[in-house]
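Structure first, sequence second, as always.
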């Protein structure tokens, strides 16, 4: 599932390839992809509009349109955004196509491709954000676009209880972190997935905040992580390379790179896999 670094990479692609361009045609094939507001609202809202910005909060991509409306794209499990020349053979599961008006003699299309169809394309009036996308208001701090440091993290964790990993995955606490980066961050911070939040010293919270910022920043620089079982690619169709830096995720049974003493273990907690080093993480 794309997490903050992958979504940020897609956002940057939209910013460089799509922002400033007028949408001259809209096709919606699979209505499930536009279920939140419906096909008519998406077509009507995008046709003739120009994207003026591409922002991100957590895993939500938010584009301002010159009409005053906004376009929201959420990739969820398997969504991809691709830009190709018009006439290029579209991949299976291309559910929404925005034709971008001709520029330098070339007509391009932005595709929303989503095999598992959990992803969403929404067009809405920002005055109605609370009704259309109520979850946006409840999103926690975004470690990249918001001010983020140990004080901010300590505040986000204050009053919370229970194991650390579910809290990192909780989008209302910190926005954008998913299973891969939670495991990598906890490993570097030397914290086990089931460590309780109220047992953390201030020094540990400081370290955790540092690793959240560093892991996410490095992963963005690497274009995100592309794993065998995921189809994540950027807007040009390129895979990310941060998986080469993974220390625990996907390394079950292999030696720990950090301590060199024991093998990485994997457990299933609440249906999700967790990889950790039993020696480095306490
Ligand atoms: Zn280790």
């Amino acid at each position: 599932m794309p997490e903050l670094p992958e979504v940020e990479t897609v956002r940057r692609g939209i910013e460089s390839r799509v922002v400033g361009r007028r949408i001259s045609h809209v096709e919606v094939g699979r209505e499930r992809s536009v279920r939140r507001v419906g096909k008519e609202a998406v077509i009507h809202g995008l046709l003739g509009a120009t994207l003026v910005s591409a922002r991100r909060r957590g895993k939500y991509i938010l584009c301002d349109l010159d009409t005053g409306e906004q376009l929201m794209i959420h990739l969820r499990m398997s969504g991809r955004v691709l830009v190709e020349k018009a006439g290029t053979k579209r991949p299976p599961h291309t559910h929404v196509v925005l034709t971008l008006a001709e520029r330098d003699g070339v007509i391009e299309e932005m595709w929303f491709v989503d095999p598992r169809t959990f992803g969403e394309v929404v067009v809405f009036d920002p005055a109605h954000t609370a009704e259309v996308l109520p979850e946006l208001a409840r999103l926690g701090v975004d470690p990249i676009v918001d001010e983020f440091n140990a004080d901010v993290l300590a505040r986000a964790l204050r009053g919370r209880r229970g194991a650390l990993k579910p809290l990192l995955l909780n989008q209302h606490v910190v926005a954008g972190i998913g299973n891969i980066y939670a495991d990598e961050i906890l490993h570097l911070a030397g914290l086990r997935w089931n460590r309780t939040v109220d047992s953390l010293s201030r020094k540990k919270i400081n370290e955790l905040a540092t690793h959240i910022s560093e892991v996410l920043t490095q992963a963005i620089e690497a274009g995100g992580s592309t794993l065998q079982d995921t189809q994540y690619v950027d807007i040009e169709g390129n895979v990310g390379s941060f998986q080469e830096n993974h220390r625990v995720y996907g390394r079950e049974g292999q030696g720990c790179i950090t301590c060199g003493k024991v093998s990485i273990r994997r457990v299933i907690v609440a249906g999700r896999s967790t990889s950790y080093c039993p020696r480095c993480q306490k």
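Margin note: The domain at 4-138 is CATH 3.20.190.10 (N-terminal domain of MutM-like DNA repair proteins).
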